[in-house]
Amino acid sequence: MKLIFAIVSNDDSSKVAKHLTSHKFSVTKLATTGGFLMAGNTTFIIGTEDDKVDEVIAIIGRHSKKRTQMVPSSASYGVGMYTSFPVEVQVGGATIFVVDIERFEKL
Amino acid sequence: MKLIFAIVSNDDSSKVAKHLTSHKFSVTKLATTGGFLMAGNTTFIIGTEDDKVDEVIAIIGRHSKKRTQMVPSSASYGVGMYTSFPVEVQVGGATIFVVDIERFEKL
Amino acid sequence: MKLIFAIVSNDDSSKVAKHLTSHKFSVTKLATTGGFLMAGNTTFIIGTEDDKVDEVIAIIGRHSKKRTQMVPSSASYGVGMYTSFPVEVQVGGATIFVVDIERFEKL
Ligand code: NI
Ligand code: NI
Ligand code: NI
């Protein structure tokens, strides 16, 4: 068995949790902070069979992969004059660590 | 040494923490959520010698093992008429993952 | 790659987080409790290359090592009569577990 630690942005965490549990994976969710600004994110701990690790990673990737989004931005080009235009920002992203489990017990 | 991740229900977490520390184990406690409903539970991280893993698992099991409990329930059997009867529910339960520690430092 | 779990006292956690991130380590921070009194502490999860583990441990140690501090204390030596004197207390301290990572993904 493998223990998977997956760190995803808070924006994506409920989608990731929903899909992992609906695909019958046992998931534990932690409120964490991280990155340069120690912003809120979510860490999932998932214990699973060796041959299901690819599926877990695929599900997490599908719902949290780094992607660009167009968001409205604005700039002033004179006193009291503004223009609005879309700007590309990066959102999402997941960091995943897989560790070997030596022993597993369900009591 | 081994690193033990143990997920127990919140109902049992203070008993488990109390007994692990009174038996001199070094315990770190995390507030987590999990299961189908992402309900609150508790994850313990315990670092211990290889030959103490069985004792840790025994202590956790003794205080959090899955068990049935009779709880009062009620049903209506007519307009404004209720009957109360006991219902068996499952409580507790622990999921335990044991991982090998390559290096341990106490600074 | 290695996964490092480091438990430090809350007093030292922001210094440790700041230095780890400024040295370009990827850090996830968890609010945890631990020790005999289940007092608040902080657990860091750090994924890093094998040859950087020593550097991570050195940074954590530099900013959280167990040390003594003189704090003011007071005792009464008669009805309504007090004396103030310094007392040595232990502060800080870090517990570090290093675990092998079998697979690492950044999505
Ligand atoms: Ni799905
Ligand atoms: Ni006991
Ligand atoms: Ni530094």
TrEMBL record, chains A, B, C:
Q: Which UniProt keywords apply?
A: Receptor
Q: Which residues form a coiled coil?
A: none
**PANTHER family listed in its UniProt record:** CYCLIC DI-AMP RECEPTOR A (PTHR38456)
Could you list the residue ranges that cross the membrane?
none
Note the SUPFAM superfamilies from the entry: GlnB-like (SSF54913)
Under InterPro entries, the record lists: CdAMP_rec, N-reg_PII-like_a/b, N-reg_PII/ATP_PRibTrfase_C
User: Superkingdom of this entry's organism?
Assistant: Bacteria
Report what the protein is called: Cyclic-di-AMP receptor
